[in-house]
């Protein structure tokens, strides 16, 4: 008798890193890593822990974000929505092509304005 066995391989735990930097005119939050579906709650929790001080603009630097799942995207949308209710604008910077494709393919790219970090925000 032959039995079929399904081999499952555990994925290594993916770690997202957040680096917060206070700039003169905005708060910069750099997100590094792979924002897979199992990271959505971690993204929300980490973003909500960031003290906003008196900033009216938060820039999410996605230069080192390698993947953005739909659940992780939802976490970014919820964060943006919550800050907008408080009068704080959220923009994206250095968005990688694969991450931008995730935003655009869901029709949510238009929710985020992109900013060039070399220019001074208005």
Structure description:
With 122 residues, this protein is of the alpha/beta class. It has helices at residues 40-49, 70-85, 97-105, and strands spanning 17-22, 27-35, 57-68, 89-93, 113-114. The protein has a 5-stranded mixed β-sheet. α3 links the parallel β4 and β5. α1 runs parallel beside α2. The radius of gyration is 17 Å and the shape is globular. The protein starts with 16 loop residues before the first strand and ends in an 8-residue tail after the last strand. The mean pLDDT is 86.
Average pLDDT works out at: 86
Using the CA coordinates, give the radius of gyration.
17 Å
Instruction: Tell me the strand order in the biggest sheet.
Output: 1-2-3-4-5
The best one-word shape is: globular
How many helices?
3
The main sheet comes to: 5 strands, mixed
Structural class: alpha/beta
Count of distinct strands: 5
Beta-strand content: 25-35%
> What gap, in angstroms, lies between the N and C termini?
72 Å
- Percent helix among the residues? 25-40%
Order of SSEs:
EEHEHEHE
Parts with pLDDT < 50 across at least 5 consecutive residues: none
